[in-house]
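Structure representation.

___
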Amino acid sequence: MTAEAQKLTLIQMILSLQDYQVLDKIEQLLKTNGAKTNGSAMPEVEPPLKKRKYGFAKGMTLYIAPDFDETPPGFEEYMQDPE
């Protein structure tokens, strides 16, 4: 069955529904998926993010602690033995 045939079958099934609880669930699904309930089933599209430039954060690190590379106390058992 093609996608278009599946869509048509789904539309026919929805049109024949008389159970309002099911219709409410369909409306909730539409809302959670970002579709508008005013007849338009197109979800809202967010604008694409701007491309980042290399080196944009250069110079932002102001301080590194002198013990940065040392193992914190209590983590010795998780470290591998340097054999």
Notes: The helical segments are 3-15, 20-32. Residues 1-44 form one domain. The CA atoms of residues 1 and 7 lie 10 Å apart.
